[in-house]
Amino acid sequence: MGEAQADVAIRGGIFETTGFRAGAVALYDPQTGHYSAEIPAAPAMLSAPTVLTGADNALGGWNANAGTIAYEWRRVRAGGAASAGAGAHALRRAEAYQGWVAPAPLAAAAGGRRLAFDAALAAADSDGSRPFGESRFRRCNARVQLAGDGGQTDLFYGRQSKFIGWPNLYTPYADVFETDDLRTELLVLNHREELGGGDFVAAGAYWRRNADHYVFNRDGPAHNAGFGAPLPSRHTTWVRGAGVEGRLATGAVAWHFSASFIADKLESDTLTWGRFNTRNHARVSLAPETSWALAGARKLSVLAGAVFDDTNRDAPAVSPVARLALANAAPGALADEVYVSCAASSQVATYTALNSHPSAGLFRGAPDLGREKARATELGVKGARDNWAWTAAVFHRAERGLVDWIYRTSLPNARAASAVDIDTTGIELVARYAGRRLDLVLGYAGLRKEADYGNTDADASFYALNFPEHRLTAAVTVRAGRGWEIRLDNEARRQKPNALRATGDDAVLSAFEVSYTPPRRPALRLKVAVDNLWDSDFQDVPSVPAARRQWMAGATLSW
């Protein structure tokens, strides 16, 4: 409910091994993966996200060994919506969206493609569910679009500001009240052309600027701890990038391809201990795919290719990718598809790890951290019958040189960047039911990890070894009739024990929402929601206090 930092982990990965895409371009922050999810775009402008793993991530991701969150640009719709809400801890929020689509005669004059425009504003403020835990958020964005049956071009600009305060936001010390103040700008030009039969070509370019002002402890002197607390830090990053991707069929072979170039730059008053503060990245992938029709309405598909990654600061890497899939369209088949994939990938470390002081300060860097490499193997099955759909997968990911942040009792007043070789084995099970009155999404994930930090003394891990060994999820939507809808999201997890976690390792977390749409006013929606329904104190990140239970009431009007 209150705005906060967004760290996304996929299949036991960490925030820095998760990537983000918007159309044909990969978005990231070169200072730290903590800020990669700062994407100043209204949800109304983006599609639902697709999670890329395995071979799909190797080919379609970028600098992300665990997985990628991929968005497409949504078609502009005529009309709009406005919402407002208020709740506990002085929470206040408001959002508005408006889209305009040119009339048909203008579309005909533009070769059948329509001109459209949309814009959105959002704001939220909260005192926070803990002392010194307030947040302030502002976002504005606008987009011009030219779209038709064959393709879509989007020119987007967005800007947002986010201030978050939280006790022990990044550090494991008692009574430290940290703040992070971010200003993010994003300019994107993206085009996608549909060529029929699943073929397409997409290209894009973008510019991103992120300014960060971090304060270690605003409630005391600049050096209020014996080890010398750091002064406030200011960092600014710039990223310029361009990319192209597509699928083109020539005869019996479909060619999957992509190419991208990204240039980044860092200016900082504390991240000055590394070997460089600018870096150019280049990436090219090519993977042909062919298929054969088999007896019994089955089809066998084989994909094989490679990805080439390089920067002007690191050694290049070539990563092979392969996938074998057997589809079965026969009525009554046990599964619609069975597949196996093997994919290698690589990425490079961000500047907080590379350029922090190696032997002093709150964050200890390592300027010689090398390229991080991974090999992912996955066996999966997909199926759908009547109102049910399901997926199941077992996977293994071997990462070498993963950059983790660790805690050492011999160095209790800092966290240190350290390379680790880690093997992750897991299973994912998901079942979905969609009915007239009821929707269900049920899931289970199990993870096991083996880690080797070499000669480094790692007493606790903030990220790589902070994971749920077992995790059950249940999302329930009930349409009770007469305009009433109930939503309940539940998660039960058994977390890997961690020496930094001050709470238990087991947790049950729930969020609850009731909404009402008056039958005679279908454009109006009223809702009441509660986050952290059971007021759990479980520390998702070790040593970082959990947000307490919070309620909110609001209304949305559409037109």
In angstroms, what is the radius of gyration?
24 Å
Count of helical regions: 3
What kind of sheet is the major sheet? 22 strands, antiparallel, barrel
Strand content: over 45%
Which oligomerization state do the chains in this entry correspond to? single chain
| CATH class label | Mainly Beta
CATH superfamily: TonB-dependent receptor, beta-barrel domain
Q: How many beta-strand elements?
A: 28
The SS-based structural class is mainly beta
CATH topology: Maltoporin, Chain A
**Shape annotation:** globular
> Average pLDDT, to the nearest integer?
93
Work out the count of structural domains.
1
Helix content: under 10%
Uncertain parts: 222-229
Q: What CATH architecture label applies?
A: Beta Barrel
The end-to-end distance, rounded to whole angstroms, is: 24 Å
Q: Can you describe what's shown?
A:
The protein is mainly beta. It has a single domain (15-558), classed as TonB-dependent receptor, beta-barrel domain (Maltoporin, Chain A, Beta Barrel). Helix content is 3%, strand content 60%. The chain contains 3 helices and 28 strands. The chain has a 22-stranded antiparallel beta barrel. A 4-stranded mixed beta sheet has the order 2-1-4-3. Strand 1 (18-22) and strand 2 form a beta hairpin. The chain is globular, with a radius of gyration of 24 Å. The chain starts with 17 loop residues before the first strand and ends with a strand. Mean pLDDT is 93; it is low at 222-229.
